[in-house]
Specification:
The complex is a heterodimer of chains A (about 140) and B (about 45). Chain A has about 140 residues and is an alpha+beta fold. Chain A has a domain of about 90 residues: Glutaredoxin. Helices cover about 35% and strands about 20% of the residues of chain A. Chain A is built from five helices and six strands. In chain A, the strands form three sheets. A two-stranded parallel ribbon of chain A has the order 1-2. The longest helix of chain A has 17 residues. Chain A starts with a helix and ends in a 7-residue tail after the last helix. By secondary structure, chain B is mostly beta strands. Chain B has one domain. Chain B has a two-stranded antiparallel ribbon. In chain B, a hairpin with a 2-residue loop joins strand 1 and strand 2. The N and C termini of chain B lie far apart (about 25 Å). Classes of the chains: A alpha+beta (about 140), B mainly beta (about 45).
Chain lengths: ~140, ~45
């Protein structure tokens, strides 16, 4: 899941499900470690009563599970991004990495990332002069 | 809405590097964190 990239960006990972820690252990041993060639490199948290899921509004009472909620939390503890999917569809790690790079770039420079931004593409510097003039600075046909 | 707000703190038991340990979100202050919820172990997505 791009864990090496996350590490390179200084990002810690925590996974959470309503399974027991014993289930996490067995899943790591029997399946995940075989998929990735080593143990799961981050803490797998047990949320057996859904209390953590409820705090983040991702707990589904009907099925008793947490849906696929992903929260990007900055060093101040502020949630900068969230994505919530129902169970059948998995996440896209590349989009998570893109968002982390964009938020880290913003916090470092104050610049903002227009629609479709990926690393190396044009950013914008907010200023009164930019208002009404974004079209001069950013062309979605070539910069987007 | 949760974005723009402080991430709610929690403490829970975790499996990590062959051991069971307590994890608190507040211990990660000062670092970027990705918090991922998923439906269950042994699911295939």
């Amino acid at each position: 899941m791009g864990y090496d990239q996350l590490q390179a960006l200084g990002v810690e990972v925590l996974s959470v499900s309503t399974d027991s820690v014993h289930s996490h252990k067995i899943w790591n041993e029997t399946e995940l470690s075989k998929m990735i060639g080593n143990d799961v490199p981050f803490p797998m948290v047990s949320d057996q009563n859904g209390a953590i899921g409820k705090l983040y509004d991702v707990y589904d009472e009907a099925s008793g599970i947490n849906v696929r909620g992903r929260f990007l939390i900055d060093p101040e503890g502020i949630i900068q991004a969230a994505e919530i999917l129902t169970p059948p569809v998995g996440r896209n790690p590349a989009e998570l990495i893109r968002q982390i790079k964009a938020f880290q770039h913003h916090q470092k420079t104050g610049e903002v990332m227009p629609s479709g931004w990926t690393e190396g593409k044009k950013t914008l510097k907010p200023s009164p002069g930019l208002t009404g003039n974004v079209w001069r600075e950013w062309d979605p046909r070539k910069d987007g | 809405m949760l974005v723009t707000k402080h991430a709610p703190n929690f403490t829970g038991s975790a499996f990590y590097q062959g051991k069971y340990k307590k994890v608190s979100l507040e211990d990660y202050r000062g670092k970027w964190v990705v918090l991922c919820f998923y439906p269950g172990d042994f699911t295939y997505v």
